[in-house]
Write a structure and sequence with these properties.
The chain has 328 residues and is of the alpha/beta class. It contains 14 helices and ten strands. It folds into two domains: 148 residues, Nucleotidyltransferase, domain 5; 173 residues, ATPase, nucleotide binding domain (Nucleotidyltransferase, domain 5). Helix 4 crosses helix 13, helix 6 packs across helix 7 and helix 10 packs across helix 12.
Length: 328
C-alpha cells in the first residue's frame, strides 16, 4: 500500500485522516485543539497523537506512511514552522507512526488548498484576528495575520481598536456621550468612558475581551449609528486592500475568475464588513466571486500529502470526495 497521512491541527480541534492512494480515506481520528500558544506544548502533542493514532488504527505493523502533511495553528514564522515540525514529529512518535517525509504549514493555508480543491483561490479569514492566503494552484502567499500588536486588518480586535480610538477622540473633543460610546460601555458593563478605560487596563482584560467589543460596534451599526457603520465599512475595505496585495502576487488579478472564501466570525456576522470587502475586491478583480467552501481544510492537507492536485487520478479524487470527513 502507498499511504499518506493528513492532519488539520487547529486551536479547537485536531483531525487526522489516513489515505490509501488506491482506496481513498481508510481511517480518521479527532481530538482537541493543538495550538501550543493556547493549550501548551504537552497538551498539543497529546491531542495530535490521539488523532493520528485513531486514524492509523488499521495501519499494518511496521508500515510507513510516505508523507505526513500537517496544517498547524500558530505556524507563522520560520521559527514557529520548525517548532511545528518538531511537534509533528513528537506526535507521530507518540502515536507509533513513522513517515518518510513530514510537511508542515499553517492551518490557514491548508484551508485554502482544501476550499479551492488545490486550484486558484483567495481565502480571507477574519475573527479575533485576520489573515489572507492566495494561491494559483502551485504558488501560495500570505498577507497579514501578524497579530494584534502589529495589526490584523478587518479583525474583531482591529474593529474594536478603531472604535475605542474614535470614542476617546470624541471625549477629547468634549463629546463623551455618543451612540458608539454608549454601546461600548454597555458591552463592558461600565458607566462611562473613564470606567471603560479602567476596564481596558485590568490585568484580566485580554485580547479576546477587547476583540469582543466589536460586537458592540455591530450592534450600534444595526441601531443606525453612522459612525459605527463607517468603521465597519472601513475595516472591510482595508481587509480587501490587503487581500488584493496577496492576490496580485500570485497572478489572480489577470481578469480570470477565481473563488473567494470568507471565513471567521466577523465576515459571517457583519454584512457591512463583508459587503465592503467584496465591493472593493471587485473594483480591482472583476473575476472575484464569493463562494461557500465545499471541502474541509483537511482536504487541503490530503492534496499536499499526495503531491498536489495533479497527482490525484480521477478515480482517487472521486473516492476522496465520497468521504464525509473531507467535505465542509
Amino acid at each position: 500500500m502507498s499511504l499518506v497521512l493528513a492532519v488539520d491541527g487547529g486551536g479547537t480541534k485536531s483531525l487526522a485522516v489516513l489515505v490509501d492512494e488506491e482506496r481513498g480515506v481508510i481511517g480518521s481520528g479527532r481530538a482537541g485543539g493543538c495550538n501550543p500558544q493556547s493549550v501548551g506544548a504537552e497538551q498539543a502533542e497529546q491531542a495530535l497523537a490521539q488523532a493520528i493514532a485513531a486514524a492509523c488504527q488499521g495501519l499494518p505493523p511496521g508500515a510507513e506512511v510516505r508523507t505526513a502533511a500537517f496544517g498547524l495553528a500558530g505556524v507563522d514564522t520560520p521559527r514557529s514552522e520548525e517548532e511545528g515540525r518538531l511537534l509533528a514529529l513528537r506526535a507521530l512518535s507518540a502515536a507509533g507512526v513513522t513517515a518518510a517525509q513530514v510537511l508542515v504549514e499553517n492551518d490557514g493555508l491548508i484551508a485554502l488548498r482544501g476550499a479551492a480543491a488545490g486550484g486558484r483561490g483567495l481565502l480571507v479569514a477574519a475573527g479575533t484576528g485576520s489573515v489572507v492566503y492566495a494561491g494559483d494552484g502551485e504558488r501560495y502567499v500570505r498577507a497579514g495575520g501578524w497579530g494584534h500588536r502589529v495589526i490584523d486588518l478587518g479583525s474583531a480586535h482591529h474593529i474594536a481598536s478603531m472604535a475605542l480610538a474614535a470614542v476617546y477622540r470624541s471625549l477629547d473633543a468634549g463629546h463623551p456621550d455618543t451612540p458608539l460610546a454608549r454601546a461600548l460601555c454597555a458591552h463592558a458593563g461600565v458607566e462611562d468612558l473613564y470606567a471603560l478605560l479602567d476596564w481596558l487596563y485590568l490585568p484580566e482584560t485580554g485580547v479576546d475581551a477587547v476583540a469582543a467589543l466589536a460586537r458592540a460596534v455591530g450592534a450600534a451599526a444595526e441601531s443606525g449609528d453612522p459612525e459605527a457603520s463607517a468603521l465597519l465599512q472601513s475595516a472591510g475595505r482595508e481587509l480587501a486592500d490587503q487581500a488584493l496585495v496577496a492576490a496580485g502576487r500570485v497572478g489572480l488579478l489577470d481578469g480570470s475568475p477565481f473563488p473567494v472564501f470568507l471565513l471567521g466570525g466577523v465576515l459571517q456576522s457583519s454584512p457591512l464588513v463583508r459587503n465592503a470587502l467584496l465591493e472593493r475586491l471587485r473594483e480591482s478583480a472583476p473575476g472575484a466571486e464569493a463562494e461557500v467552501p465545499r471541502y474541509a481544510p483537511i482536504y487541503g492537507a490530503v492534496i499536499r500529502a499526495l503531491g498536489g492536485p495533479g497527482a490525484l487520478s480521477e478515480r482517487l479524487r472521486e473516492r476522496l470526495l465520497s468521504a464525509a470527513v473531507l467535505m465542509a
